[in-house]
Amino acid sequence: MQTAGSVASIVAAIREDAAAEVERIDQTTAADLAAIHAEERDTAVTIADRDVRLAAARRENQERLAQQEWEGRRTAIEQREAWIARVIDAAREEGTSTKEQLTALIREALENIDAAECEVLVAPRDRELIDPAKFQQKIRITTADIRGGCLIKAGPVVFDNGFDARAKRFEPEWRKALGEMYQP
User: Fold this and answer.
1) Which CATH number goes with the domain that contains 110?
2) Is this prediction's pTM over 0.70?
3) Is the Cβ–Cβ distance between 154 and 118 less than 8 Å?
4) Distance from CA of residue 180 to its chain's centroid?
């Protein structure tokens, strides 16, 4: 049987072996890490469907932007239309005929009807505003359920120059004018 030597020498030998092993592991680990980092730098990551994904993402972004733009425009149009409706309601509340307006509306209607005698229909509150002597044609004044303005009848021919009919006839013009006046 062989003796190993003193306890101190055995401990010293084990320490030397352990230190050598730690140094070997450190060197191997450092070399392995350096190799891994070099490999990562040299290796480019490629995504197989990269172009397809990018194109889809761009389309999705364009669609989102278009949707937001559309919603913004729709909201602006809705606000403008609500404003125009309020203006129209306010005008209807004030929609009474003056003597000058009614005379001008009757003259305009009579110019479009070729008849010696006509019936002029007006709102009951406007009947007293009309002076039949101011017109070349012979007119008979009657009342009708209209908001303002007049209707002219000559036999089967009717010319509606009431406020509501005029509003419909001139809607493109007054809508354009109100649209230009609108300040959001």
Assistant:
1) 3.30.2320.30
2) no
3) yes
4) 18
